[in-house]
């Protein structure tokens, strides 16, 4: 409905100038439909006037499990009196339908020629589009290469910082010589653990640089940053 309203406003109320208009066609259909009713044996005999037909209908319903459950019941007002669901009549039906068909205005047909065929595309346009696509791909590749190179440079700086941290952490070993034996053992354990983790992280980063694994770069950077934070925390805690 919103599209119709917008089209109505665009055409200033004149549907002949609109891009889409609706053609409503009303149709009427006549038909017949069968009616099924619940009847007793006496009513069946009165309707069909042939006991053999009635017996055949009842036997079929009683010998079929599904029909026995769905088409046989006790009379609602007289328990013990059986009723059978049987097709006994038909009725006439009238159906009214409103069929809506959408048609396109001539404005949308300008892209076609007199024979109703779409004009052929210019081969030059195809070539230009292909060339544009190739250029875009090349530009994307160049951008990816520059990003990877910048990522590598950033990783190398992190590796350099890790090496510096490892040296500084080793130098801290000499500063704890004057402390008590228990304190020295605890601090030495922490420092050794930090050095081991920093060394492992540096090795992973170097391997990532060599193999150009971008996703691995980023995960390794975060590990290195966390290790760096841990080393600094240990250093400041131990040596005020």
Automatic annotation (TrEMBL):
Q: Where is this region: Disordered?
A: 96-152
Ranges of compositional bias, category Basic and acidic residues: 100-116, 140-152
Basic residues composition-biased segments: 117-135
Task: Specify the domain of life of the species encoding this protein.
Answer: Eukaryota
Q: What is the protein's name according to its record? A: Uncharacterized protein
> Organism source for this protein?
Symbiodinium necroappetens
